[in-house]
Amino acid sequence: MKKTKWRAAIIGAGKVGSTLGRVLAEQGHSVECIISRTMKSARAAGKFIGCPAVSTDLADIPSRVNLIMLTTPHNAVIDVARNLARQNRSFRGVAVCHASGMLTADALEPLKRRGATVFSFHPLQTFPRNFPPAHILPHARNIFYGIDGTPAGIAAARRLARALQGHVLLVPPDLREFYHAACVVASNHLTTLLWVLETMYRTLAPGRTDFMRVFSPIITATLANVGSTSPGKALTGPVARGGVETIARHLDALERHAPAEIPFYSALSLDTIRLATASGMLTQQQQNALRGLFERSASTEGKLRGHP
Ligand SMILES: NC(=O)c1ccc[n+]([C@@H]2O[C@H](COP(=O)([O-])OP(=O)(O)OC[C@H]3O[C@@H](n4cnc5c(N)ncnc54)[C@H](OP(=O)(O)O)[C@@H]3O)[C@@H](O)[C@H]2O)c1
User: Fold this and answer.
1) What is the DSSP string of 60-115?
2) Residue 3: what pLDDT?
3) Are 275 and 258 in contact (CB under 8 A)?
4) pLDDT tens, 126-183?
5) CB 74 less than 6 A from any atom of ligand 1
6) Average pLDDT for residues 245-256, to the nearest whole number?
7) Most buried in the list 43, 103, 173, 246, measured by CB within 10 Å?
8) pTM value?
9) Which residue, among 63, 48, 150, has the nearest Cα to 104 in the 3D structure?
10) Residue with CA closest to ligand 1 atom 18
11) How far apart are CA 144 and CA 127, in angstroms?
12) Using the 8-state DSSP alphabet, how is residue 189 labeled?
């Protein structure tokens, strides 16, 4: 298979640009320049990636680059693409991508008109703003990239993913927002779930801050079980056993100790009932009884808030 030697320019010296630029450099490709809104970020990324050519001016992108990665925030991508397309340079043979999860390759239309090979290239990974890129780097390989583009763009995306030791997930453009919603479930909602757990742990063990150490074994075993089978096969616990009385007592305990978490617990329990039902774990009677608990708790909550 043909291996491309990338000569890249990175526009947007944030977490994603710094991390992917560094992986590209470590894989033997060349990061030729880094452009950002401020020199401070550009210099910091340049230092991390090992690229001394940094600037705030798109005109400083050398003509020899064959890859331009737009890693600005997604609301700047369209403007940056438009400004880039106005540059007095050739885009023939240049691959241009952006890293936004929400935008398709259409955001790069002005560059496509100038002859660039365009594609979206969204790293399906989390790059937290409070973490330095060096901390994110170990998680940046073997990841998937959500892509779309012209046929040539898709081929270039595959080569770029391979260069970064990653894989591609072809995302139909009309499902782009849906794809991004799935990514939110995978990372942001998981983080929220862990925050709810941390909140509950504070009531359980006041003064202790080691909730992840305590819950890690059950969390990692659950992930491993789902990974080796399926959510339906890995499900355990009171809902899967039709334990109506246990769930009723959980709701009472939550009411007493963490009433703010009842909507979260209820929403996930209702989906757990759907999962257990789909997996053939519950009789119709058990399903009705379990759902009934949450209907009652929702109507009590409604009454408390003055709703019918
Ligand atoms: N964070 C994640 O978990 C994650 C995951 C997957 C995909 N993404 C996507 O990746 C892209 C970058 O995200 P990020 O988290 O790396 O953002 P970030 O850390 O905020 O970095 C964005 C960088 O873009 C620069 N920038 C802003 N406007 C610019 C402009 N007009 N021209 C040039 N540079 C500009 C900023 O520069 P200055 O610092 O110089 O002002 C900043 O350093 C976004 O599209 C995001 O949706 C993010």
Assistant:
1) GS-TT-SEEEE-S-HHHHHHHHHHHHTSSS--TT-EEEE--SS--GGGGHHHHHTT
2) 83
3) no
4) 999 999 999 999 999 999 999 999 999 999 999 999 999 999 999 999 999 999 999 9
5) yes
6) 98
7) 103
8) 0.94
9) 150
10) 14
11) 14
12) I
